Every structure is written in C-alpha cells, then in structure tokens.
UniProtKB/TrEMBL annotation:
CDD domains: FDH_like_ADH2. Residues 178-295 form the Alcohol dehydrogenase-like C-terminal domain. The lineage of its organism: Bacteria, Pseudomonadati, Pseudomonadota, Gammaproteobacteria, Enterobacterales. InterPro entries: ADH-like_C, ADH-like_N, ADH_Zn_CS, GroES-like_sf, NAD(P)-bd_dom_sf. This is Putative alcohol dehydrogenase. Keywords: Metal-binding, Oxidoreductase, Zinc. Its EC number is 1.1.1.14. One of its GO terms (molecular function) is L-iditol 2-dehydrogenase (NAD+) activity. PANTHER family: NADP-DEPENDENT ISOPROPANOL DEHYDROGENASE (PTHR42813:SF4), ZINC-TYPE ALCOHOL DEHYDROGENASE-LIKE (PTHR42813).
Length: 346
C-alpha cells in the first residue's frame, strides 16, 4: 500500500509500505476513505515531537471501511463505515476508568505517533470496539471527519475545560481549524459575546461567518485596548489559546478577567512565560489537556441532527495520492487560505 512516511525533521515521503496486519484480537484493519492533515502533524515535521520515530506513517484522523476484525471485536463488523478516533482506548486501565482516555496505558494518542497512522491506504486500529465509531449513512463524510480530532478537542479542552457558560464574554486566540472548531462548539453554551483574535484576515472573516461577534487583528489593533473597551475594563471570562506559541498564551494572560479561565488547547513546542506574579491575585484557573474524545458520540448526534456543521471548515480537497501537495498547501495556510484539507482515497 501507499502511505505518507516520516523520515526525520522536515522529511516526509509518499511511498510503498507493507499493509497492516491484525496483531491483537481486539484489532481492526480499516481501509481509509478520507483523511486530513492536523497542525500536530506539522509540529512533528518541525521536530517538536521527538517521540515519533523515523519510518512512522503519519496521521491520526480518518473515515474508513472496516476490512478485517480480530476475534475479540464484538461491536464493529467488516463492512462498517467508521470514524477513526485520534485517541485509542483500551477501556479497562486506571485512566480509562476515569475517562482520561488520552492517558490510556496501552493507547491514548498513538496513531501517527507511536504506531502507524491514517495517512495511508489502510490502518490498523487497536481496541477497535472503543476506538471506532460507526458512521450513520445520513451523516456527511467531511463533517464526520472533523469528529476524529478537532471538534472534540475544541469542545473538551477549550469549552468544557474553560467552563464556558451562558452570558460569558469569551475570547479565542487563533482562528485556525482548532480555533474555529472551538468557536462552533462554544455556541452550545450560549456565551453572550465571542471574540476571535488572529493575524489572518481571511480566517477572521470565516470566524465571523461561523458566529464570532468581534474580530481583532493584532497587526492593526491593540488587543488589550479593544477588549478593555468592550468589557468596561473587566476582561474576558474565558480565554482559549488555540495556537501553541508563547505570544498567543501571553495574550490570554493579558485579557483575562478576575475569576476567569485560561484554557490552553494549542500544542506547544517551546516554553511559555507564565506571569504568576500578576495572575495569582486574580483567582485565575489555567487548564491544559489532550483530547479524550469522550464527547464524540454526542457530537455525532449533533451533526446528524444539523445542530452543528463542521464541514464548513473544509477549504481544500485532494486525492490521497496528492498528499505531499496538500501538505505544502497546509504549511502555507495563510497565503493559500487553507483551513481543513480533505484527502480522499481513489
């Protein structure tokens, strides 16, 4: 089969690999129908994730058809169309029993990280019963693909960790795919005002279309001044960091109100400066996390009912065989006006 293989920092190649085989009785083999590229994949290619070995097939998101199952798989059948969760869940370890699936002792984020991932024609999924979600026939495949990672991430690590409530003024720093997913998910909780902050005017325009009330471009506006004026000098109730760089985390610290929540969503490859000398007296709560995907079944029902439309985040489409071109586009997202890229197997 063909797959996108990591060959060290800055190096990747679409090449021939041996097809996956069932190893454990809880495994399934899934033929990829659609996959996508995540900002985390770019972090890997930058060398920010040293736990990824050379020779690893990248990718942790996908929609596919089950082609084989191990003898212990009970609820997933050959021929099922499924959503592949970015988090692999054994279901029985110490962390799984606490619903901290991202820390599963034999799973967690392993696809495209510690085992071969989804940017391939086929993929092996451990603990298939817990790590695959059957896809109803009436759900759009592109919408469902957003449930592999970014929509649960925005909801769980941003909105739920940040305790967004009706009437809150919230700010999202970073209008990339994860930030826009968080924007969509936040509207379940009816905040009074949603502020989106980014340096990319195109992404800010998309954010407005998806429900942002105020947009701020730091290259032309003073973020703190605008938010102080908007909130009568108080600040925002929840600030969500959606990028993963020191500058955006600092913005969150600068704009948070006393008693507020800073929810970090972005993947950080460098240390950030924490101004605890200013925050301690403001009763600030800071949360971090890797998505558990426990919200995926609920989000799937919300997509099925039309309450949320994450397929609106898709801007580019390519055949899977053109994944190297797609990476080039995604790596220059601002000039290409790229958000989520869908790669479809031929």
């Amino acid at each position: 089969m063909k797959a996108l293989v990591y060959h060290g920092a800055g190096k990747k190649r679409w090449e021939e690999k041996a097809p996956p085989q069932l190893i454990e009785p809880t495994d399934a083999i899934v033929r990829i129908v659609k996959t996508t590229i995540c900002g985390t994949d770019l972090h890997i290619l930058k060398g920010d994730v040293p736990t990824v070995d050379e020779g690893r097939i990248l990718g942790h998101e996908g929609i596919g058809i089950v082609e084989a199952v191990g003898g212990s798989v009970r609820h997933i059948n050959v021929g099922d169309k499924v959503i592949i969760s970015c988090i692999t869940v054994c279901g029985s370890c110490h962390y799984c029993k606490r619903q901290l699936y991202s820390h599963c002792e034999d799973g967690g984020w392993i696809l495209g990280h510690k085992i071969d991932g989804t940017q391939a024609e086929q993929v092996r999924i451990p603990y298939a019963d817990n790590s695959l979600h059957p896809l109803p026939a009436d759900v759009d495949e592109e919408a469902a693909l957003m449930l592999s990672d970014i929509l649960p991430t925005g909801l769980e690590i941003g909105v739920i960790n940040g305790k967004v409530q009706p009437g809150h003024i919230i700010a999202l720093v970073g209008a990339g795919p994860v930030g826009l997913s968080t924007l969509l998910a936040s509207q379940f909780y009816s905040p009074a005002h949603i502020i989106m902050i980014d340096t990319d005017d195109n992404r800010l325009h998309v954010a407005q279309q998806l429900g942002a009330d105020t947009i701020i471009n730091p290259t032309r506006q003073n973020v703190v001044d605008v938010i102080q004026k908007l909130t009568n000098g108080i600040g925002v109730d929840v600030a969500m960091e959606c990028v993963g760089i020191p500058a955006t985390f600092k913005v969150c610290q600068d704009i948070i109100a006393a008693g507020g929540y800073i929810a970090n969503i972005g993947v950080h490859g460098k240390a950030v400066e924490l101004h605890l000398e200013e925050l301690w007296i403001k009763n600030i709560t800071i949360t971090t996390g890797l998505v558990n995907t426990s919200s995926t079944p609920m989000l799937l029902k919300s997509v099925q009912s039309g309450k949320i439309s994450p397929e609106k985040l898709v801007t580019h489409r390519y055949p899977l065989s053109q994944i190297e071109t797609a990476y080039d586009v995604f790596s220059h997202a601002a000039q290409e006006k790229a958000l989520k890229i869908v790669l479809t197997a031929e």
